[in-house]
Design a protein that fits this description.
With 211 residues, the chain is an alpha/beta fold. Helices cover 33% and strands 26% of the residues. The chain has six helices and eleven strands. Strands 3-2-1-4-5-6-7-11 form an eight-stranded mixed sheet, with helices on one face. A three-stranded antiparallel sheet has the order 8-9-10. Helix 1 packs across helix 6. The mean pLDDT is 98. The site of glycinamide ribonucleotide has 14 residues, from helix 1, strand 5 and helix 6. Pathway: Purine metabolism; IMP biosynthesis via de novo pathway; N(2)-formyl-N(1)-(5-phospho-D-ribosyl)glycinamide from N(1)-(5-phospho-D-ribosyl)glycinamide (10-formyl THF route): step 1/1.
Length: 211
Amino acid sequence: RPRVVVLISGSGSNLQALLEAQEHDELGGDVVAVISNKADAYGLVRAREAGVDAVVLPHDEYENREHYDGALIKVIERHEPDLIVLAGFMRILSPIFVQRFFGRLINIHPSLLPAWPGLDTHRKVLEAGEKEHGASVHFVTEELDGGPVAIQAVANVLEGDDEASLKERVHTREHLIYPIAVHWFLEGRLKLDGEVAKLDGHDLPVGGLRL
Ligand code: GAR
């Protein structure tokens, strides 16, 4: 069966969505390890409860990003993954890392990319008075939050929303689309072809498939 390694830094609610899909035999593979750069990430507890190998690799024990990413590559490769899933892994990855796993490295980002790359997306969307927000799953390239999008889901901005309420709504969309994207990839339907994401051999549009 295809093997998945998930990288986290925090709560791991997206990890949980993937574990639940796996439990219902809807993932098309197995999460074989979860790696966190933070020892107190709650996602580590979720992993252990699901019987998945949970590894802590603290970034502050390494002198620079290249050294850390080198160590991270080694830990990941020990698990022989077909796919590496970033699920709230809050670190910028070095080009060496991105190149090593190019085409089998995906991320989820809380916005309708290419709109609002970077941090604090919910606050920025509210401040800009946007009516539409959402989440995107994309292949990771060297451009931060800039890789080809596979799938995205819209979350409307509602009257009276604050950062917390909007974030929660976007999270529900994330939990919907991440297992779908992982399943597509593990079934061999979703591929990165150069700088284009393809589903069943067809080029996906800029925002990927939109729900
Ligand atoms: C998610 O909202 C994800 O989109 C975001 O972190 C959160 C992690 O939540 N990722 C980024 O902002 C990446 N730059 P989770 O730990 O509950 O899955």
